[in-house]
User: Fold this.
Amino acid sequence: MLKEWLVCPQQLIAFARIGLHPSPADIEAAIRCLDKAQDAMRNNGQSAVALHPARAALVSLRWGHLPHRDACISAVANLGAVMALGEEVE
Assistant:
């Protein structure tokens, strides 16, 4: 389930990386998915620190700014790592 929640924010941030501005509704949906993933990780006793770069990128998008290229790359990479770890745990 963790992977399903993280795909949306990962794709949204990846598209922002190439200059595509997501809609406010898409940004809010991605933040809600990230919140669900964070809650699930914490409930399982896992650290959710790896989700912080994604949250920072999404908040930047919420404010109407495109996150810096390196911030997008870091967020997408961290989300991918969490997804891979989540598959091993499940």
